[in-house]
Specification:
The structure is a homodimer. Chain A is built from 4 helices and 6 strands. In chain A, about 30% of the residues lie in helices and about 25% in strands. With about 120 residues, chain A is of the alpha+beta class. The radius of gyration of chain A is 16 Å and the shape is globular. Chain A has a 3-stranded antiparallel β-sheet. In chain A, strands 5-4-6 form a 3-stranded mixed β-sheet. Chains A and B meet through strand 6 and helix 4 of A and strand 6 and helix 4 of B. Strand 6 of chain A pairs antiparallel with strand 6 of chain B, so a sheet runs across the interface. Chain A binds a DNA duplex (25 and 25 nucleotides) through helix 3.
Chain lengths: ~120, ~120
Amino acid sequence: MDNVLNLEKIKLTTARKAILELLSNSKKPLSYEDVKEFLLMDKATFYRNIAIFEEEDIIDSFESNDKKRYFELKRDKHSHFICSDCYTIECIEENPKFSLKNYKIDNIILKGVCKDCNKDE
Amino acid sequence: MDNVLNLEKIKLTTARKAILELLSNSKKPLSYEDVKEFLLMDKATFYRNIAIFEEEDIIDSFESNDKKRYFELKRDKHSHFICSDCYTIECIEENPKFSLKNYKIDNIILKGVCKDCNKDE
DNA sequence: CTCTATGCAAAAACTTTGCAGGGAT
DNA sequence: ATCCCTGCAAAGTTTTTGCATAGAG
């Protein structure tokens, strides 16, 4: 765990370690609501540390259809699929090929209906 | 304007006409904040009518990085670029090629840094 | 002792809901 | 007279901020 942190800038407190461990054990991005039952800290502590991690480029985040922010450890470029029905988020390792002159594309989000919800219709 | 509405189900009130006209005159999706100075109606009326339009598949919406919801009239498939710095939204007519077995992809959102903000860095 | 991290409560930002009045048919 | 539309105010949801205390070095 220590190796992801620039320990000269960020002290690895219990709260921070807990957040990073939860994120690193997860296969998909998590919201505060997803993690709150596993974390003993106050939401203010969570969000404040998240802000620090983002400044230090340790994590990424994005907003989903459900109005929540989802967090994940920074890793190889990948995309996310968000289901408009069940709000499930999946990581897609294969990236759509796309470029725009003079634009920097960091993140691609695909929205639609996932295989499970697609089945139900 | 009338032709976009299924008038058997939705009465074309003054408020609804105003919303649809604003959206149809815009080249990009708009949030409530974008339109509120041009619309005389209360925000409750706006959001309630938006909900009706979405049910009837007259408009689409998505959340942006700025935590606001953006609305546009449904039209030919296209993508959106959202700038993480200035939050500007642009419509991209050319779609990234991508498909996922058993998934339905309705909407592709590209996040990154737009040409203007890219210049500043 | 000093500086940062934390908890709690309140605020903020956007959207939704309850309720009562108004308008159209 | 009925039914839907609207405005206003209040509530809801997620995230942020202020402030005082706790804790580490």
